[in-house]
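Title: Prediction job returns without error message
Component: structure pipeline
Severity: low
Priority: P3
Assignee: unassigned

Description:
Job completed but the reporter wants confirmation the result is attached to the right record. Sequence as submitted:
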Amino acid sequence: MLRLFALLLLFISADFITYKTSKNNSDVYVPAIRFWRPLAKLGFSTAQYNLAVRYERGKGVTPDINQAFKWYRKSAEQGNSKAQLKLGNFYEAGLNA
C-alpha cells in the first residue's frame, strides 16, 4: 500500500515540485531531489530517470555524470525508454562509468 501511495504522489507531484520560476533559479529542484531519491531507491523507474536527469544537468545537486549514469542504467533496466536512449547516448559518447 505504501508503494502505491508513493507512486501516486510521484505522478501527481513531480511536475508541481519541479516547477521553475526563472532560468537561473535551480533551488526549486532541491525539494524534488529529496522527493525522488527515496522513491528511486525503492525501484521506481520514473524517479530513477528524473534523478539521473538532475545529476546530469546539475539541477538541485552538484553535476555528477557517474551518478547520472548509475540512475539512467537502473531505470533503463526496468524498461524506461527515455533512460535507455540516454544510456545509449552515454555509451556512444564513451561516458560509461
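Comment from assignee: result matches the submitted record. Residues 2-17 form the longest helix (16 residues).
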